[in-house]
Design brief:
Length: 212
């Protein structure tokens, strides 16, 4: 039952988009709890929409201070717990890091996102220091514009922060906001590229969480 926390203190880096899509495709294979730890409740709004996502996917909001007990109480009932983190470094985002086996940090290919990642990287490092290197952590590049000079430089800049960058990433595609609007995932839409991107992220996630 891996717990995956999707966190970044910077707003708008694609946390909710990644969380809803990943949770949907993981639910094709097992039971998934998607915890909405963001007071903006974006994930819950998504779930309340035109709900066509898999039966194996449950979505629940988390009140302030409740994340750790909630994750503990659910651990045995789900194959995956995905946490959609709030923007900002808050008690909830710190709890998400504490609860996680794997922290995914979505970052857009922009120097602003690389600079802004330093606080969450420090929070993950502090946690790793006190718990024998757990949780594992990785950046996921989101909204990439393929074949740009900046795109290539961003991989190197993120890697310098000492946290690996997933090979799989999302590119800037309207299929992502469309899927949020439709209350489903990009796998339900017609954009094969977006679908393959999310499936590739799922594949890397599976190998990261199952190779210990
Ligand atoms: N790969 C993508 N292609 C195009 N648009 C995207 C992509 N990923 C995310 N977006 C859009 O970028 C915006 C921010 O994404 P999202 O809400 O997922 O970020 P967030 O990190 O959860 O934001 P917040 O910090 O406010 O919770 C949204 O409008 C979303 O539709
Ligand atoms: Mg969000």
């Amino acid at each position: 039952m891996p717990v995956v926390a999707i966190v970044n203190q910077k707003g708008g880096t694609g946390k909710t988009t990644l969380a809803t899509n990943l949770a949907s495709v993981l639910a094709e294979k097992g039971k998934v709890m998607l915890l909405d730890a963001d007071p903006q409740a974006s994930t819950q709004n998504w779930a309340a929409g035109d709900w066509t996502s898999p039966d194996a996917l449950a979505v629940k909001g988390v009140g302030k201070g409740n994340l750790l007990p909630q994750v503990r109480s659910m651990a045995r009932d789900y194959d995956w717990i995905i946490i959609d983190g709030p923007p900002g470094i808050t008690r909830t985002s710190a709890d998400a890091v504490r609860a996680a086996d794997l922290v995914l940090i979505p970052a857009k290919p922009s120097p602003l996102d690389v600079w802004a990642a330093s606080d969450i990287v420090a929070a993950v490092r502090a946690r790793q220091k006190s718990t024998n290197g757990m949780p594992r952590a990785a950046f996921v590049i989101t909204m990439a514009q393929p074949r740009t000079r900046l795109g290539r430089q961003i991989d190197a800049a993120l890697a310098e922060l000492g946290i690996p960058v997933l090979q799989a990433r999302t590119t800037q595609r309207v299929a992502y906001p469309n899927a949020i609007n439709d209350g489903n995932s990009v796998v339900d839409g017609s954009d094969q590229t977006a679908r393959n991107e999310i499936l590739a992220i799922r594949g890397e996630l599976e190998s990261l969480t199952h190779d210990d």
